[in-house]
Q: What sequence folds into this?
């Protein structure tokens, strides 16, 4: 799709976050790929995954941005395609960080299954919301999606991931996994807020928040979470290297 530069709105905060989001994801990917060469061997795969997460997001933002500017509508399908690729990769980060402490592939599959459940139900909630919006539809699918979210949250804070990190004997892994847990608790919680802005959603019917705000919340959350996750992984890699050198 060719973007008509003359149609870029100058008073639209959502368009603004699509453009800055794109640039931020691209810059973050360059950073993670380049810095990959300066970390220890055992962190290289984690750094690669960080770069892939923001890289995949950058490509989707490129298209979502144009879609939004051209149509003024939420690029729901592109959004969920992006998430279906990037959220499982974030689960891979949890797995890689705890692998040395004994994480099994089964843990990774459980996390991936929970994230796909969360996203497929969320997609049904948004994409099949009847014309004009339906509260019961939005609440039902939003609730089902939240179950997947809570499973990941629990695993990161109290479940297998938390236990493995606690037993890893590696201080930077402990702190890093806890920090990622905070991202899941606070950063990921921004998404349901966006979801509730769609027609029929609680914030839409209750507070009159416009459906275009869905993208505002999603764009802000994506920048925080995708770039943030990568930076946490990067700081684990850098700080555990310092300890070896000392
Ligand atoms: C990079 C993209 C990320 C980290 C996306 C995360 C998305 C979520 C945590 C979405 C969660 C949702 C709910 C918990 C309920 C309503 C529907 C969703 C899919 C917005």
A:
């Amino acid at each position: 799709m060719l973007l008509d530069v003359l149609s870029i709105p100058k008073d639209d905060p959502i368009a603004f976050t699509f453009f800055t989001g794109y640039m931020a994801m691209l810059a973050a990917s360059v950073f993670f790929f380049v810095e990959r060469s300066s970390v220890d061997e055992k962190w290289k795969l984690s750094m690669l995954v960080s770069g892939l997460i923001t890289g995949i997001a950058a490509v989707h933002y490129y298209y979502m941005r144009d879609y939004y500017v051209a149509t003024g509508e939420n690029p729901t399908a592109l959004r969920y395609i992006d998430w279906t690729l990037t959220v499982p990769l974030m689960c891979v980060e949890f797995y890689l960080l705890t692998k040395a402490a004994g994480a099994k592939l089964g843990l990774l599959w459980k996390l991936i299954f929970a994230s796909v459940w969360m996203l497929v139900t969320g997609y049904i909630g948004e994409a099949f919301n009847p014309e004009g919006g339906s509260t019961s539809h939005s609440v039902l699918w939003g609730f089902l999606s939240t179950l997947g979210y809570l499973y990941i949250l629990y695993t990161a804070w109290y479940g297998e991931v938390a236990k493995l990190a606690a037993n890893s004997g590696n201080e930077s892994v402990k702190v890093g996994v806890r920090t990622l847990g905070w991202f899941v608790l606070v950063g990921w919680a921004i998404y349901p807020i966006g979801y509730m802005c769609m027609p029929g959603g609680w914030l839409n019917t209750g507070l009159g928040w416009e459906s275009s705000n869905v993208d505002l919340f999603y764009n802000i959350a994506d920048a925080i979470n995708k770039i943030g996750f990568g930076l946490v992984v990067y700081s684990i890699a850098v700080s555990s290297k310092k300890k070896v050198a000392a």
Residues 5-245 form a domain with the Rhopdopsin 7-helix transmembrane proteins fold (CATH 1.20.1070.10).
